[in-house]
Amino acid sequence: MDVILSAIPERRIHMIKKIALATLAAVAFSAATPALATDYLANTKSGKFHYATCRTIKYPDAPHFVHYSSREAAIADGYTSCGVCRP
Cα–Cα distance between 64 and 62 in angstroms, integer? Predict the structure, then answer.
């Protein structure tokens, strides 16, 4: 292993370490927040439902937002999908 590393320039080793660290951080973040992509918020004022991460939602804790864990449940309650995030 040392022979292989000695043939690689120091700045490349540094870059490889940075990429590996960024990859590990991304994996750790996605494992820590698995529900983000599947959580939905429905707006009782507009009748639309969104991904919880939709850029149009400024105040997700506002009282006019209802939480749903599935798209089907929001549709069953009469909400239509947001045209921006397209859940």
Answer: 6
Q: Phi/psi at 76 (nearest 5 deg)?
A: -60, -30
> What does the DSSP 8-state code read for residue 64?
T
Q: Which of 27, 25, 5 is nearest to 16 (CA)?
A: 5
Can you give the residue ranges of every domain in the chain? Answer: 2-32, 40-81
**What pLDDT sits at residue 5?**
59
Rounded to two decimals, the pTM is 0.57
CB 24 within 8 A of CB 32: no
Residue 51, judged by CB atoms within 10 A of its CB (0-12, 13-18, 19+), counts as buried
6/73: higher pLDDT = 73
